[in-house]
Amino acid sequence: MSIPNLITLARILLVPIVVWAIATPGAMWIAFVLFLAAGVSDAVDGFLAKRFAMTTVLGAYLDPLADKALIVSIYLTLGINNLIPRWLVIMVVSRDILIVGGIMLAWVIGNPLKIRPLLVSKLNTVAQILFASVVLGALGFNYDWPMLTLILMGLVAVLTLLSVAAYVAEWVRHMNATASGP
User: Fold this and answer.
1) Is the N or the C terminus of the chain less surrounded, counting Cβ atoms within 10 Å?
2) For residue range 18-29, what is the model confidence (pLDDT) as tens digits?
3) Mapped to the 3 state alphabet, what secondary structure does 12-25 carry?
4) ∠ CA(73), CA(79), CA(84), 5° rounding?
């Protein structure tokens, strides 16, 4: 169990606390602070793993799991509490379900697919985190940036759709390439 993996586990353990803070009146500032801490921890564990050759197979699975658990949980909780549009929550969550479902389907039919993060996916994650940060910060500290919120929401929607399209295209290419043989 390396230091980066312990940091990632701590990020996973933050998820229920952030969800609680979003759902608890007057605790939104706690959600914002913990979300920022989770973001910093993601950067720190990645830096440590790469800089000091502490990458592990476990970490390769834990890190994206922690990221998705945090983002999906926050978006679901914000949506359930009517703090962000539900259509956006559905897009964000459906994208992740589609990706995981495609990977599982390929594996079940004996044609495993090694998924690698695409640039559009990384940009999508950044947009999702920025949007959630602005929403949590605005709600936690009673300020309002409607134009920034609207722009980031639109960016999340567009990048989510582009990311879905890119992963579906990768999946179809993979399935067709292995179906046609060498």
Assistant:
1) C
2) 999 999 999 999
3) HHHHHHHHHHHHCC
4) 115
